[in-house]
């Protein structure tokens, strides 16, 4: 049986690793957080003492880390994993990172005859738990084909966007649009509430009308409208404001590089910066942008 190593067991990586175990893969896991690692072990992963030990003899290494610096720190340099992996090992990085960081990793892997792809995901924590993520892959077709059985154990849809880094480009286009429609949904719901409407009734009406969108229908930001979303549990868990800010920064860097005009993306980044000006808010789910528009009680 293939030996799979999974590094980064947070809100996304934890349930993704658990789904690989459920699908019958032997998974050795590692995370810097003891509680995240302990949870993965409860879900059937073998415990890695550190990244190097966890990746020993691995056929496939999957990473799901918060930042490009974290990914480069894991794989590159004299003590990086690429130095220790066997040729032909398959590396799948599902973190959302810059296109340049993804290309640097894939080129460094290729120089050691290690196959690597960028495979960021969409769908959020609920899809990670349900095994219904969308993967957007960049890299050689042969490496993407080799990754398919693993990605299918964690997701419902797999797209080959193009060459190395193409998955990351698709991902930040998607997340820039996600930020824009989340903010639009929050301000529309608030205007309705400020004018006496019930947010659940208004959501139902918009859902059946031309303003319907993913943020409203699957991830409603107004507390109490939908069960099982962060808005109904104090905006805990989910996709943090800090991570959305990172993605909007990546989107703006990409737009600058291609001289693309992204006025709404720039405004969305500004509004998330305003909302995320406190450490407390940066930890909340990104749908907490609703709080930027809510009035104090009685106003
Ligand atoms: P998270 O902060 O919940 O988890 C990240 C985990 O990585 C943490 O447990 C942390 O301890 C661990 N970690 C960090 N550096 C490490 C290292 N060097 N070695 C081992 N472990 C390390 O983040 P998340 O929400 O799971 O997001 C992970 C990635 O997925 C990010 O790039 C994010 O942009 C992307 N993403 C998140 C969502 C979402 O809804 N949360 C959706 C799509 C994509």
Automatic annotation (TrEMBL):
Domain 6-phosphogluconate dehydrogenase NADP-binding: 3-162
Gene Ontology molecular functions: 3-hydroxyisobutyrate dehydrogenase activity; NAD binding; NADP binding
Protein name: 3-hydroxyisobutyrate dehydrogenase
Pfam families documented for this protein: NAD_binding_11, NAD_binding_2
Catalysed reactions, as listed in the record: 3-hydroxy-2-methylpropanoate + NAD(+) = 2-methyl-3-oxopropanoate + NADH + H(+)
Family classification: Belongs to the HIBADH-related family.
Catalytic site: 171
PROSITE patterns from the UniProt entry: 3_HYDROXYISOBUT_DH
Top EC class of this enzyme: oxidoreductase
Domain 3-hydroxyisobutyrate dehydrogenase-like NAD-binding: 165-290
EC id: 1.1.1.31
Pathway involvement of the protein, from the record: Amino-acid degradation; L-valine degradation
Keyword Transit peptide belongs to the record: no
Keywords noted in UniProt: Branched-chain amino acid catabolism, NAD, Oxidoreductase
Superkingdom as given in the UniProt entry: Bacteria
Any one Gene Ontology BP term: L-valine catabolic process
